[in-house]
Amino acid sequence: MNAIEVNGLRKEFKAYSSRPGLSGAFRDLFTRNYKIVPAVNDINFTVKQGEMVGYIGENGAGKSTTIKMLTGILTPTSGQVMVNGMNPHKERERFVQTIGVVFGQRSQLWWDIAVQESFRLLKKVYKVSDADYNEHMDHVIKTLDIEPLLDKPVRKLSLGQRMRCELAAALIHNPPLLFLDEPTIGLDVLVKLKIREFLKEINEKYNTTILLTTHDLTDIEALCERVIMLDEGNIIYDGALRSLKEKWGEGKEISFEFLERAELARLQTLTEDLGAKWEMDEKDQIFTALTGDDDEVISQVIARTVAAYKVRDVKINEPSTEEIIRNIYEKGMMHHG
């Protein structure tokens, strides 16, 4: 069963330009010059029930626009959207019963009333029975550790506290599908970990589908096996996070700290036939060989270096997901052109 099906989805905005001077301003009153700018450019993807998918891209890549179309806030310019077997825009009433949404930037809690009053109102809105609410929400409240916050008004909460309450609020009706737009923005590490653990748990327990947009790639690594990557309104990658790393994570770095003075030129000559490139950090006297992913080559580089110099320390680093994604944005466009 597919939770989300998107075909040829497109959203265009009109970008108006103003004409200079007073006469220009006057003419603008009657006719405006504008050009059509696509925010989302004929994209296709499907998400199966129970998948956790990371939706990533730089600001302005079209992530929020997509989420707004998937949640029925915006109408597509063209293309089809099916979410939980419904058209989000047309079957509004029935549709909102089946999704949970957390926008890092926008609250669904009432500012001046106690958190649990907000929960009660939402429980009514979603027509959740007492039994269902108690069974499900007791668990949510405990796991997110928000019991002590329930009788506080939202305006008295810190950002981390509020986000945990937002997440709980989005789950009052235990929806099969959860949209999270930047849910951990500005949160400290412990809160992030708590939220991640919790999301994993509800995904395992209820097979909840989760679509997550975030700047924080550690969120994605911790939660999602699949990523969809957007650039300028186009999908440039859709697949396993693992293969993304294999495809773009160019090789390994082997860093050496020597007990004696070493020369860059000599290291270069030592490993020339292996295709290793050496760099040196003047300040800490750390020499780094950049190699491919071939284990044989890596062990050769280490063996020869250790034979030539006395070594204090060796580290093998893989490029982080952050670096890989920066790599893709810098080089990737050429390949997709």
Automatic annotation (TrEMBL):
The ABC transporter domain, residue ranges: 24-257
Protein's UniProt name: ATP-binding cassette domain-containing protein
GO molecular function list: ATP binding; ATP hydrolysis activity
Keyword Hydrolase (UniProt): no
InterPro entries, alphabetized: AAA+_ATPase, ABC_transporter-like_ATP-bd, ABC_transporter_ATP-binding, P-loop_NTPase
Species the sequence originates in: Mesobacillus subterraneus
Domain of life (superkingdom): Bacteria
Key word Transmembrane helix present: no
Key words, A-Z: ATP-binding, Nucleotide-binding, Transport
A Pfam family this chain is assigned to: ABC_tran
